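Sequence in, structure out.
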Amino acid sequence: MKEQFLILIYKSLKSQFEGIKKSSWIWVDFFENEESGFDHFKSNIESDKDFECLNDESYYQGEDLNDLAFDIACEIRGKIAGNNFLNECQQTALSMIR
């Protein structure tokens, strides 16, 4: 996967999460520290079966990379938001047990 393309996706994703609480696990894990956040993002994307197509550089050749990065960031945002919802459900369930 081209590093520069991943950086475009990461920056687009970060801009989509600008309005969330800075104490949110999403912000802390991915954006609070850009260097470690990008590394975390990159390792997640590289191991995610849904984004295997990004390993094939022909997938995005001839495409407007900014537009494609935005589209991919939207898909990633949806996955992260789903994980956040599940995390909140787990936290609620745990607090009810206590």
